[in-house]
Each structure stands twice: as C-alpha cells, then as structure tokens.
Amino acid sequence: MKRFTTFLSRKNITISLRKYGVDALGAMAQGLFASLLIGTILSTIGEQLNIPVLIEIGNFAKSMAGPAMAVSIGYALQATPLVLFSLLAVGAASNSLGGAGGPLAVYFITIFATEFGKAVSKETKIDIIVTPLVTIAVGIGLAYWWAPAIGSAASWIGNLIMWSTGKQPFIMGVLVSVIVGMALTLPISSAAICAALSLTGLAGGAALAGCCAQMVGFAFLSFRENRWNGLISQGIGTSMLQMGNIVRNPKIWIAPTLVSAITGPMATCIFHIEMNGPAIASGMGTCGFVGPIGLYTGWASDMANGIKESITFADWSGMILICFMLPAILTPVFGMIFRKIGWIKDGDLKLD
User: What pLDDT is stored for residue 26 in this prediction?
Assistant: First the structure.
C-alpha cells in the first residue's frame, strides 16, 4: 500500500474531493464558457444582425465543447502535455456519446483518462506513443462503455427537475433557486452543474434567479465595506469572493439566500422566466452578464423557430427585476435588519 501511495505521489495523482469536485468541475465550466457559451452568443449576434461569418464562427466554437471541457479538466488536474493533448479526442467522444448529458460524461471520463495517462507518462522510452495511446484508449473505451448511461442519467435527472418545476413551480422555484444559487457561491461550479443536467426552461429560470440573487445581493449588501470595486467584482464577477467571510460568519449568507427563495418562485410563477438559451447560462448569474444574455438568446431562438412572436415588455421587465433590481433592493434591506440585531457586523463582508 505504501508503495502504491508513493507511486501516486510521484505521478502527481491526488485523489481528493477538492481536486475532482471543485478544481475539475470549475475548470469544466471555463471550458464550456470558452466554447459552447461564447459560440452561442456569437452565433446569436450573427443571426440578429444577419452576419453569416459570426454564425459560422459561433458554430465552430460550439462544436468544440467536448474537447474544450476535457482539456480544461486535464489542465486543472495538472496533466502532462501528451496527456493534455490526447484529451481532445476523449472529450469529443464523451460529449458525442453522452448525448444531452454529454458534459457530465466528459467530466467523469476525462478524470479517469487523465489519471491513467499521468500514471504511465514518462515511464517508458516510447512515451510519445504509450502516453497518448493509454489516455485515448482508456478515455474512448470508457466513453463507449459509460457515456450513454451517464448521459441518460443526467438527462433523466434534468428532465425530472424541469418536469417537477412545471408541476410545482412555487416549491421547485424556491428549491432550485436556493440550491443552485448557493452552489454558485460555494467553491464548486453552478454553471457546470446546470450544463451537466441540461437545466433549461422554468427550472433554468429559477436557477438563474438564485445565482443573480447571490451575486447582485452580495455586491450591494457589502457596498459599505467594498464600495465600487466590490460591486463590480461580485456583481459581474462572482459571489465566491465572499466564501472566506462566510466561513468566518455564516450569517452573512442568509440575506442573499432569502432573496433567492423569493425571486426563484417569482421567476417561475409570476414572470414565467424560461432559460431557453444554453443550459450553462442558467448557472452563470450576472457573471459577465452571461445569464441575461442567455435569456435573450433563448428569446431569439424561440422567435426564429416560430415559438415566440416577439420579445415583450413583460419579458424585459421580468429579466430586469429578477436579475438586477430585486436582489439589489431586497438584500440590503435584509442586511440592514441583520446588522441591527447583530448578525452582521462592520467588516464582516470586507474583501481582502
């Protein structure tokens, strides 16, 4: 056992929840952003402005989602160059064979392929053959074996959540909004979770509401401590910046979480906000305005397919209220109450 542990250490293989559940998942979201999401945005702009070259560029970017995710995960796991380059084929196969749950298939299979590739890397004199061979063989072999089942399971779970949200929009609006919003602030990737489960429709709208409540909420809740730099870094960046402060005083998390429990069911029951853009946008919130842009791309797609006649005033009002105004107003109101009763003290929300 000691010899095996020494071997893993020498090969830089660390089996840990943080490595696989935080680092790899977060990297996967970046890979999705750099391919599927940015491609969707570009192709949508091209369609709206009638610029064919933008549509083509966007389609090329979207087609690289699998390889981009795999390489991002491999990079997070500190794969050696030959392993990293070989993951392109693994990502393409896993995403294709995984169907609607392709991102989740890429996530699991890439982790195995990466660690097997690292295990044999530089162990032979013909490393340039052995390392890619093992990485690709393990990855694509697992893709044929696991990806369809993983994809079906992810699709089933995602469809169950979306079906439940349609049947019980209030209860599921609260649950999805709170859970996905908290995932965004935790050091895991809400975007990758939404993409892996293909979370769209009303459930996607609730997820977006929860993420916006956390980001915009913390930005305005901490304005007295962090001023404009904090407003921008949290409101357009990520509320994950508050994680250290949450560990020190978990009560600062109550205000934005309460807001997500309010805006989630408002999104599903009152404004009927549906994320019909890319699923990853459901878990992005206001990060780079990706969430609202995802809503718009969904509206544009629905109009192009004849599902929607036009973008209405109610659509814009719902987006602005749920994504921006309500979190910006309600979170500081709750914060003021919590400051008065001593749950939040000056400096508790200060970013380093």
Answer: 80
pTM attached to this predicted model:
0.80
Q: How many CB atoms lie within 10 A of CB 56?
A: 13
- Which range, 40-49, 82-91, 221-230, is most confident? 82-91
For the stretch 63-86, pLDDT in tens is 999 999 999 999 999 999 999 999
pLDDT digits (tens, 9 = 90+) for 131-158: 999 999 999 999 999 999 988 888 888 8
